[in-house]
Amino acid sequence: MLNDIRYLVLEDGTVYEGYKLGAEGESSGEIVFNTSMTGIQEIITDNSYTDQIITFSYPLVGSAGFNTEDSESLLPTAKGVVVREAVEHPSNFRSQENLDAFLKKYGIVGISGVDTRSITRRIRSTGVMKAMITDSADHEDTVRSLESFELPRDQVERVSTRTPYISTGRGHRVALIDFGKKENIVRSLNQRGCDVTVMPHDSTSEEIMQLKPDGVMLSNGPGNPEDVGAAVETIKSLIGRVPLFGICLGHQLIALAGGASSYKMKFGHRGGNQPVKNLAANKIEITSQNHGYAIVEDSLKDTDFEVTHIAINDGSIEGIRHKTEPVFSVQYHPEAAAGPHDSSYLFDEFMDLMTTEGGRQNV
Predict the structure, then answer these.
(1) Domain boundary among 148, 175, 201
(2) How far is CA 255 from each of CA 13, 297, 350, rounded to the nearest angstrom?
(3) Per-residue pLDDT reduced to its tens digit, 166-187
(4) Is 259 annotated as belonging to a binding site?
(5) Residue 191, annotated ligand binder?
(6) Cβ atoms of residues 52 and 76 within 8 Å
């Protein structure tokens, strides 16, 4: 029917015609693609996708359905979802609703019936760009709207917790700085017995150290690391006082605190099948990733950090370690959710650091 038609309009004027999916209305954001075949609920609820429209390159999306347990945040902040085919009748004993119902519940606009692999090829060729999912057939007007549309720069502030809270354990005390954390980071720490206090993104080093933590974890999150300047200053004052472990945005912020710089990638790494080389172990890990920024390799040369992991596909930096202090970070997601668990050992390395180095704050 004519009123079921919906359009995806890209900044460069490319138009894809498809069908309505999810919430009513229209939505603008930065369009990106994810190559994962599974873990759709975890991907959509990852707050690193704040203000982004997610294109799934795999053609059949939502076959496992959605439930109340697998979300990585309480309130998804993605701007849209683009699929080739949305499964109407999921086949999984844990499923409680399908993709369309899930998107409607959280007010996320979607579109189905489009060639997502064509979109993926276009993004790989031209880079990420602004896009709009809309019911309007006036595509010229939509393109004009996109030309004047400014991408927000306050994503971390919007997704971070506003007040500290505790996820109780009986082991090491960990302060988790929430830049848009995935819930599986907390679960991974709790599984190792950690007592986790989740802190707002703008917590000061004094507020963090008042907790007398054995270690500080810096979470993933959305946006440009250079927009979180206050966190960089906080990290500078924490280095040498307590073990630090950074993931994704947390990794980038540690690098910036060490004097390195970042850059926006052409189309980023998003998917659960990204190969990374562990330089010390001379091994390849298959990793889960979701990032659009990376660290400039040359900018690390005169810092106290060394590269520990690199991406096989493009050689970009995937991990660093301080040369003398108990500080390390990775660009990918060792907590997976969704994705392979090859890199879960990094949480164990963090545990070891807290055991051997965690008393520094009392010195």
Answers:
(1) 148
(2) 37, 10, 18
(3) 999 999 999 999 999 999 999 9
(4) no
(5) no
(6) no
Catalytic residue among 11, 42, 201, 248: 248
- Judged by DSSP in three states, 310 sits in strand
Active site residue 333: yes
Cα–Cα distances (Å) from 31 to 19, 55, 115, in that order, read: 18, 7, 14
Segments of the chain assigned E as strands: 5-10, 15-22, 27-34, 52-56, 60-61, 80-82, 85-86, 109-112, 129-134, 165-167, 173-177, 195-199, 215-218, 244-247, 262-278, 283-295, 305-311, 317-322, 327-330
Nearest to 124 by CA among 330, 266, 288: 266
Total tally of structural domains belonging to the chain: 2
* 335 has catalytic annotation: yes
pLDDT at 73: 97
pLDDT band at 1 (very low <50, low <70, confident <90, very high): very low
Q: Are strands 129-134 and 5-10 parallel, antiparallel or unpaired?
A: antiparallel
* Same-domain check for residues 170 and 29: no
Q: Do residues 352 and 220 both lie within one domain?
A: yes
Same-domain pairing of 294 and 342: yes
Choose, from 11, 285, 325, 335, the residue flagged as catalytic: 335
Looking up tokens 């579109």 gives 111
Q: What is the CATH number of the domain that holds 57?
A: 3.50.30.20
